[in-house]
Amino acid sequence: MNDFVFQSPTRFVFGKSAIERTGEEVAALGSKRVLLVYGGGSARRTGLLSRVEDSLAKAGVAYVELGGVRPNPEVDLVRQGIEVARANSVGLVLGVGGGSVIDSAKAIAFGAPAPCDVWDFFSGKAKVTKCLPVACVLTIPAAGSEASSSCVISNDELCLKKGTNGDAFRPKVAIMDPTVTFTLPAYQTAAGVTDMICHVCERYFSAAGPVPVTDSICCGIIRSVIEAAVRVSHTPDDYDARATIMWAGTLAHNDLCGCGRGASIEKRAGGWESHGLEHEVSAHRPEVTHGAGLAVILPAWMRYVWRANPDRFLAFARDVFGIEPRDTTLEETERVVTSAIGSLQDFFASIGMPRDFEGLGLSPDEVDGWVETLRENKGEPFGEFRPLTMEDARAIYLSCF
């Protein structure tokens, strides 16, 4: 087990009617005026936003609003939010939505007190030193942004999608009510499930050796998510299954699944190869849902790299899918590993995710553009489990068609 530092400073308020506690939780943080950030019209149509607003009003917390955050959130709206936050002297940024909304709230929170343009934090020109407090009401379990140190934003002008990390913008409180996810579209639920499984896999397939406690947590989360997702696909208002998915999304990305697996205490566990590959796709094509892209890329990456550490994939096959080798031959190892990868992809497909890039309306002609910005974003080689060159990346992309 490698050395690590783990902290989860986020306060979680989880359960039925948790949303009614939003105001008192925000007020307890000492905020008298907040910027309320949300996405499209569904938060308003479902009455969720009104419940949050009522709760804030009852707690004596004033608010200004910024709506319109899209999936794969764009930096221009973040810049608008920064101006609103400054003009209204807000003391906290409250995101009501999924990962895109919460990441936008985070970027606004550290962009508002900064003397530079917010994109400088994503391009590596600046580091976060000051940040307004962030809180969130989670409505779409997927990204794990409600407790993570991650923030990912797109820049359409540059065709780039980049992330930055920092404990300063981990949310101070996360309001989590599984009942608000009952009406999520099946595709959105499935994409979220895929993303959280990938968050676990990025850490599980690091360069570290076995870490039994952490590895058991990783595989247990994946098994629980698979079971809950199947139940939800048949019964969308299954509270326990929805609660499992919501809490699993948090645990998948608050760094618990990487404890003892990181190369150093400063570095997040894993090489994040699948996320790096997918980010280029959805940066060039913002209409591609991140989780759907991962459903294609993660199995393709697995098939490309498993020979770098077959034992790791054999452990995954055993502990997630119960597939054991009958002997120690290379042929049997390949059978078990490919069967486990196939089982994972079959699961993604069973809940409505695409099997290939054609299912996302993509073309092989686009690969060169993805490789070009991947090189700019990641350098060469990149990754950890099996470092990838740009030719490796190209081969993985093409295998997705």
From TrEMBL:
**PROSITE patterns named in the record:** ADH_IRON_1
Q: Which residues form the Alcohol dehydrogenase iron-type/glycerol dehydrogenase GldA domain?
A: 9-178
Please name the taxonomic classification of the source.
Answer: Bacteria, Bacillati, Actinomycetota, Coriobacteriia, Coriobacteriales
Give residue ranges for domain Fe-containing alcohol dehydrogenase-like C-terminal.
189-399
Provide a Gene Ontology MF annotation, just one: oxidoreductase activity
**Does Oxidoreductase show up as a keyword for this record?**
yes
Could you tell me the keywords of this UniProt record?
Oxidoreductase
Oxidoreductase: present as a keyword of the record? yes
Q: What Gene3D superfamilies does the record point to? A: 3.40.50.1970, Dehydroquinate synthase-like - alpha domain (1.20.1090.10)
The protein's name: Iron-containing alcohol dehydrogenase
Q: What is its EC number?
A: 1.1.1.-
